[in-house]
Design brief:
The chain has eleven helices and eleven strands. Helix 4 packs parallel to helix 6, helix 7 (158-167) packs parallel to helix 8 and helix 9 (213-223) crosses helix 11. The longest helix is centred in the middle third of the chain and has 14 residues, at 125-138. A hairpin with a 2-residue loop joins strand 1 and strand 2. The protein has helices at residues 29-38, 51-54, 59-64, 83-95, 110-113, 125-138, 158-167, 191-199, 213-223, 232-236, 240-248; strands spanning 7-9, 12-14, 18-20, 43-45, 49-50, 74-79, 100-105, 143-150, 173-179, 204-207, 227-230. The chain has one domain (7-248): Alpha-Beta Barrel (TIM Barrel), CATH 3.20.20.70. It is globular, with a radius of gyration of 16 Å. By secondary structure, the protein is an alpha/beta fold. The protein has an eight-stranded parallel β-barrel with strand order 3-4-6-7-8-9-10-11, surrounded by five helices. A two-stranded antiparallel sheet has the order 1-2.
Amino acid sequence: MQEIKPFKIRDIEINPPLVLSPMAGVTDVSFRRLLKRRGGVGLSVSEFISVEGLTRSNPKSKRQMRFYEDERPFAVQIFGGQAERMRMAAEMAEEVGADILDVNCGCPAPKVVKHGGGSGLLKDHSRLETILKEIKKAIKIPLTVKIRAGFYDHTINAVETAKLAEGCGAEHIALHGRTKEQGYRGLANWDLVRQIKEVVKVPVSGSGDVTTIQGAFDRFRETGCDGVLIGRGAMVNPWIFRQIEDAIHG
């Protein structure tokens, strides 16, 4: 039986190694705190926040960045396609006291992708590189990325994207093993998590279809990943994090 143990994003311990995956319209502050109090959430992440809204003082975007001390460690996830605005938003997240700044390179929503953000960045590596380098220069807190398998089903490039992100200074990579084209259909490809884990030095976590304790244990075992992200599974069962944590401790 493989030992499932905490991992670190720089000096921030993710313990247990379970992450509440950001979900638009779901992982707001009340949902996150509800789960955090049930136990087992090692890292909570904001809903993904539009940098266009944030940098233009949209009250909704500002509100999405709010969090409570008892949620720490807490990551703010931002999305957008303009390096300058991404940098400004990253600085704002650091100012409000977020522990980690996460860049969304996975959202498949057309309105996000058409502006080059979300999973649009998967097919524009030079834009992604510019954005990550700009952010890295501007903030002191760790920079992390969440990516997908690729844009189209025939352009799986998660391994290349992960290497690029690491090269730009990202300190944790989370992969949702579906393509943009796939949306939320079919099954996530966890083998890509294993492949990324083999080529980068930073911690790697996987996301997609984990809805049971056994499912989480299987993913850790098959991929050697550092962490597991749970999203929709937590909407069905808010105790899932605590149940997995209890199982880890026998």
